[in-house]
Amino acid sequence: MANVVELKVNLHCNECIKKILKAIKKIEDIETYDVDTQLNKVIVTGNVTDEQVIRVLQKVRKTAVKWDQDNQTLSAI
After folding, report:
1. How far apart are CA 47 and CA 19, in angstroms?
2. Which is one Pfam family of this protein (predicted)?
């Protein structure tokens, strides 16, 4: 069953977005991914966990935290 991972990530510029997309594409078992630049939100769907995606983003020096859908704010892991 596919999981939906939603994370808050600081997106400064197009280079940041390119690095994030390149890193996410390397994750095994993903079905879809999207970057919402207005909300600074990364969404990954597939057989992945929040922790897996966060680790991949940390490798490209990006800090990510879980997205709290109830009030659209951050929730610490």
Report:
1. 21
2. HMA
Collapse the DSSP code of 55 into the 3-class scheme (helix H, G, I; strand E, B; otherwise coil) and give the result.
helix
- Give the tens place of pLDDT for each residue, 28-65: 999 999 999 999 999 999 999 999 999 999 999 999 99
Structure token digits, residue 36:
């919402």
pTM, full prediction: 0.81
d(CA 13, CA 4): 25
Q: How far is CA 34 from CA 40, 44, 57, in A?
A: 11, 7, 14
Alpha-carbon distances, residue 35 vs 24, 60 (angstroms):
10, 15
- The single-letter DSSP state of residue 45 is E
CATH code that applies to domain 9-66: 3.30.70.100
